[in-house]
Amino acid sequence: MTSVPVTPMGNRSARPLLSRVPAALWLLIPVLLFVAVFFLYPLLRLLMVSVPGGSFQFYEQILTSPVFLRVIGETFQTSLVVMLVTVLIAFPYAYAMANCSRTTLLLLTIALLIPFWVSLLLRSFSWIVLLQNSGLVNDMLRGLGLIDRPLRLIRTPLGVAIGMVHVLLPYAVLPLYTILKKIDMRLMEASSICGASWFHGFRRVYLPMTLPGIAAAAILTFTLSLGFYITPALLGSPRDMMIAQMIAGQIQEQLNFGLGAALAVVLIALTATAFGLFGLLQMVFARRQAKREQTA
Predict the structure, then answer these.
(1) CA-to-CA dists, residue 228 to 27, 38, 75, 221, 255, angstroms
(2) Is 23 contained in some domain?
(3) How far is it, in rounded angstroms, from Cα 204 to Cα 260?
(4) Cα angle at 113 between 109 and 115, to 5 degrees?
């Protein structure tokens, strides 16, 4: 009779800890290393530079200076305007893409993606050519008899908004298109059969189903607008400075790295706060919509 060897309980616990880690978790190690090296470490260095010797003097200067507060306010104001205009233009464009033939869809997609192949700097310079006093826009308006003198479009908030909307339009159209493509248009036909007008059916049936895409487009365009630098620098004026321009000025011209780092941290914090508020509003709206559906 052979004896069966008994493994002591202590040997089980003595197995290497790494051998107990699931194999799938090993796939996360390169991602975690990448995030730690290229995101967390630079962010920590930025925080350290912004608080030299543990002093928060730069943050106090930002929060108490009217100049910095005005720039932060104008940055948010411009970003909100650009977000609204971009989403309003992107919605019908995405609607056309979702309900057109394949040939038209191909043309609309090419027209939408061509700006990605052109440098942002070149696109901003192109708007300078178009919006200047002797540019195509003013010449066209004068040719139609709408104006007598050239409009001042360069070095104004309007010019900055036009350039930013042009840059951000593809980022708003793509998430909207992915949502609108999934909506069955027979629902609109069913609403019309039930006696609803096109506008009433669009407002009560179609539009609520598009809200996830609208929210995604709004969040994406707003957060990207907060950090714009090239377009406001070329199309705007020093009076309409945005926070990214002020950060660049403090670092490149004033060589005040501490204040520039503090402004960058404030920009990151404000962007995260805005992103969180958008998510909170979306959550509240989703709960109210669910309650309405339950009571209906």
Answers:
(1) 34, 21, 9, 11, 21
(2) no
(3) 48
(4) 140
Enclosing domain of residue 124: 53-295
SS3 132: coil
Contact between 244 and 267 under an 8 Å Cβ cutoff? The reply is yes
Give the mean model confidence (pLDDT) for residues 224-239.
87
| Residue 280 is assigned to a structural domain of this protein | yes
Q: Which residue has the tokens 């530079």?
A: 49
- CATH number at 111 reads 1.10.3720.10
Best CA proximity match to 94, nearest among 8, 170, 185: 170
| Tens digit of each residue's pLDDT (9 = 90 or more) over 38-81 | 889 988 998 898 888 888 888 888 888 898 899 998 999 999 99
| Residue 246 maps to a domain | yes
Question: Total structural domains in the chain?
Answer: 1
pLDDT at residue 14, rounded to an integer: 46
Answer whether 136's CB lies under 8 Å from 130's CB.
yes
**Long-range pairs, 195-203, Cβ under 8 A, ≥24:** none
Asked whether residue 272 is domain-assigned, the answer is: yes
Q: Over the stretch 83-133, which tens digit does the pLDDT of each residue have? A: 999 999 999 999 999 988 889 999 999 998 888 888 888 888 888 888 888
Angstrom CA distances, 152 to 121, 128, 144, 148, 234, stand at 21, 11, 17, 12, 15
What band does 186 get if pLDDT is binned at 50, 70 and 90?
A: confident
